[in-house]
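Appendix C reproduces, verbatim, an entry submitted by the partner laboratory led by Prof. M.T., so that reviewers can inspect both the input and the predicted structure.
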Amino acid sequence: MRIMIVGAGMVGQHLSEKLSGEGQEVVLVDQDEKKLRRLERELNILPIHGSGASARVLEEAGIDQTDLFIAVTDSDEVNLIACIISRQYNVKTRIARVRNEDFYAHGASRMEKTLGIDLVISPDFAMAEEIMRLTTMSQALEVAEFGNGQVEMLGYLVREGQPCVGSSLADLKALQGVYDFVIVAIIRGEQTIIPRGQDRVEAGDKLYLVVRKQDVRAVEQLLFSSASHLPRQVFIIGGGTIGYLVARQLEKLNLNLRLVEQNPATCEILSEQLDHAIVLNSDGLDAHDLLEEGIDQADLVIAVTSSDTTNILSSLLAKHHGAKKCITLLSNPAFIPMLGKLGIDVPLSPRQVAANLILRHVRGGGKIVNVVSLLGGDAEVIELKVPDRDQFVDLPLKHLSFPIGAVVGAIMRNGQALIPSGDTLLQPDDILVIFFTKDAVAGVESLFDK
């Protein structure tokens, strides 16, 4: 497939890396020639210097031979114009990133139809949805959905005294009873372990498991002696678009909600637009103000200002004073690996959230149905379709040649989710939900090439 990406920012770079790594022909268009040359050395891409809103530049880049067109510059206007220009050519799929809320006034689907764009995504809306998923799953540090929402991949921090501590995977399998789940990874320090039967769970591990959605709370109770629940008291630091969107959704849940915003004029607007939230005029780093409002009793703190520094420091301040969980927005993904050591629970990258949304949309025509990056990019979950070939009919899962560093967490069959064992028999058109580390990428993608 020939894919043209307009915009070499964080999202464009991430998509270029992912798609070129899968063997796709990627053309990257951007006005920053120095950045393009650097990316050309690092990635297998064709760089084109120029504006994505120029028909001449797009023709030079080979727009007439492009199957998938993705416009993700920092300019909404350039992204929309580029997609509109691409309508003159035989481009099968067009995707645009748009930030301005005014474009969504009559709904994204209407805008898509009017402009002839297959998918219009808003990073702010996507981030707000991700935060809401993490809010409702209070015990989890990472959440990803598969199988049209029937299966969830969840990450947890294992704490001293929980039932799973000291247990081997074989022990936990014997405890499962009617609730099926698969532990697909253990993160211990800097090491990612794809566990086997005798591997044991230790306090301080990050445990990743796949479970059917209806079984999540029962499995949490089994492994951790506590189940996810809605937070009672929530602080949002930052009253920008993301903070407002999250506050608007949280108000529907009747929580004790406080929104902290430094700009007085923005505070006035927020006070008018929100029904129940208490809007506080503060910078999010004033410990005295926050303690007076009860941040030490907060079940959840969501730091979503436009400053990574403020988000990190306000999260650390909240955790220091007793807040139970922090979700921290970080525009610079380089900070993410170090945040766990600082005690920050959930770092969220807009780049990864937006890129995952785009990747999810462009899959579906081939054997790869869906891909989601996890663990700060060190591992992925892929939905892979079993080909309709005789050698895979009734083949026991354990006889499939899985590379080291990969494990099947679930199977989607006829719209139903199955948590498999090694004896589960494959069927054509089954969709396997596979967790794997970077080292196993090639082996996973070639599973059905024989």
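The radius of gyration is 23 Å. Additional entries are available on request from the coordinating office.
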